[in-house]
Amino acid sequence: MATERTFSIIKPDATRRNLTGRVNAMIEAAGLRIVAQKRLHMTRAMAEEFYGVHRERGFFSDLVTFMISGPVVVQVLQGEGAVLKHRDIMGATDPKKAAAGTIRAELAESIEANSVHGSDSAENAATEIAFFFAGIELVG
Ligand code: AMP
Questions:
Q1: Cβ of residue 112 lying under 6 Å from some atom of ligand 1
Q2: In Å, how far are 8, 9, 21, 60, 114 from 75, measured between CA atoms?
Q3: How far is the CA of 80 from the centre of ligand 1 (A)?
Q4: φ and ψ of 72, to 5 deg
Q5: 87: closest CA among 131, 133, 124?
Q6: Whole-model pTM?
């Protein structure tokens, strides 16, 4: 499998509980390298644009409000099969359904406050990375 990059967010429920280091340790233990990272507080307009594909979903408004309720840490992760590997270590969207040992099973509060986001494809990863980072900020 080829080396690739994926995009990750440590969400406000996790930054609020001071869990950035715990999440990063799980990412690194899985063999992924954090090649870019920054902490920021999204505006409503940014969150609405980032989650634009979910605009018609019933949970959209609550999701945007949650994502701007505190700071997030946005990251670029690199490694063999990074997209799938990251989704494996995050676990299912709903922490009640996430496998034991995954980030969401261990740390998430609810299906909305589920601690982490990860790209679902290499194509979406490239779009999401470009939304938050300039090329010179990615340092493998
Ligand atoms: P995704 O684009 O797959 O990351 O999904 C967006 C986010 O929306 C998820 O990570 C959850 O935080 C949230 N979400 C997804 N499904 C639901 C739901 N049924 N109820 C509330 N929040 C949800």
A1: yes
A2: 5, 6, 13, 23, 16
A3: 26
A4: -120, 165
A5: 124
A6: 0.96
